[in-house]
Amino acid sequence: MPGPPPALAAARVAVRRWLHDAGPEPGALLVLACSGGPDSLALVASAGFVAPREGYAVAAVVVDHGLQPGSEETARGAAQHCRRLLPDGSAVEVVRVSVGSTGAGPEADAREARYAALQGAASRLGASAVLLGHTRDDQAEQVLLGLARGSGTRSLAGMPDRRPLGEGLLLGRPLLGLSREQTETACAELGLTPFHDPHNEDRRFARVRARQALATLEADLGPGLAANLARTADLARDDADALGALADTAYLELGEQPWAVGALEALPRAVRTRLWRRLALEKGSPGTDLTGEHLRAVDALVTHWRGQGPLHLPGGVRAARTGEGVQVRREA
Predict the structure, then answer these.
(1) Omega into 258 within 30° of 0, i.e. cis?
(2) Residue 180 contacts residue 39 (beta carbons within 8 Å)
(3) CA distance readout (Å), 122 to 115, 154, 212
(4) Rounded to whole angstroms, how far apart are CA atoms 264 and 261?
(5) How confident is the model at residue 197 (pLDDT cuts 50, 70, 90)?
């Protein structure tokens, strides 16, 4: 008996491998996030087939951001696809969200609203994990954006294939090893007609410009660039995790602030900057506003102190050195 077509088979293998390596215990409920696009439909199709055979229950959640005309109809169409692809009796929900404006940008605001909706739906349904359809191309675009912004190792590490999403909930990305072409082909193999978001062609969004730049670079430098950038993310993640573990240990050993300059000087700078970031976030600095320049300025209180006064960080936080101690705290 012939097996499934190649792209669909690759998606099923990716989901099965993720469940074995990173998934929750069998018996758990998995929520599949679906936009109706090719990546998320490929996820629903492959996970809807594999997960029940591995002992998992599945449900689908479609988030309607309400940002485009006809978004309700698009969400209903995505939900219909999910009902056809999932086993009978699987829950399929459409959740309408209101996207606020925080100043972080429309993409970030929509993502925050989407993740909150998925987390709420997972809690309501009693799920253990939420799965997203991000692909290797999404990962490459993330790394390219990090390079363009001069970001550090953690940003270049891109998206992990799993991370916590609230208390007792896992966020997973089983298709990170697949290309966007494979997910589109998998949909074609199943006779599915995905929704193509017009925002994916709107150059106002940084991710769209990164996608177009990546296509240009691949045309100029040859194929394989996206895969190489994704591999760079894996290597950077290993380094970032190792440095993060060292910073966690140092944080505990340094104890209460102010921290002794001598003890700080003994640490690698890459560990110290992680400590400064952790302290600033704990005291209220917003992560979106806290830059590498801020962290280097705090570190200069250890390495190049000439009696300079306190440094003012975003969110009403300040860093100061007094004698042989450095402290980061909320401004009075």
Answers:
(1) yes
(2) yes
(3) 10, 27, 34
(4) 5
(5) confident
Answer whether 0.85 is exceeded by the pTM. Answer: yes
Q: Which two tokens stand for residue 315?
A: 């969110």
Phi, psi of 81, rounded to the nearest 5 degrees: -55, -45
Mean pLDDT of 32-36: 95
Domain 255-330 has CATH 3.40.50.300: no
Per-residue model confidence as pLDDT tens digits over 213-249 = 999 998 998 889 999 999 999 999 999 999 999 999 9
Cα–Cα distance between 113 and 65 in angstroms, integer? 8
Decide if 10 contacts 176 (C-beta within 8 A): no
Q: What share of the chain is helix, strand, coil (3-state, %, to 5)?
A: 55, 15, 35
Q: What is the pLDDT of residue 103?
A: 66
pLDDT at 98 over 90: no
Class of domain 6-225: alpha beta
User: Any idea how long the chain is?
Assistant: 332
Residue ranges of domains in the chain = 6-225, 255-330
Sign of the four-CA dihedral 206, 242, 179, 134: negative
> Dmax over Cα atoms in the chain, in whole Å?
78
For the segment 116-145, the average pLDDT, to the nearest whole number, is 95
Burial class (CB in 10 A: 0-12, 13-18, 19+), 144: buried
- Burial string for 118-133 (b: 16+ CB within 10 Å, else e) reads bbebbeeeebbbbbbb
Locus of tokens 């599915």: 192
Distance CA 116, CA 97 (A): 9
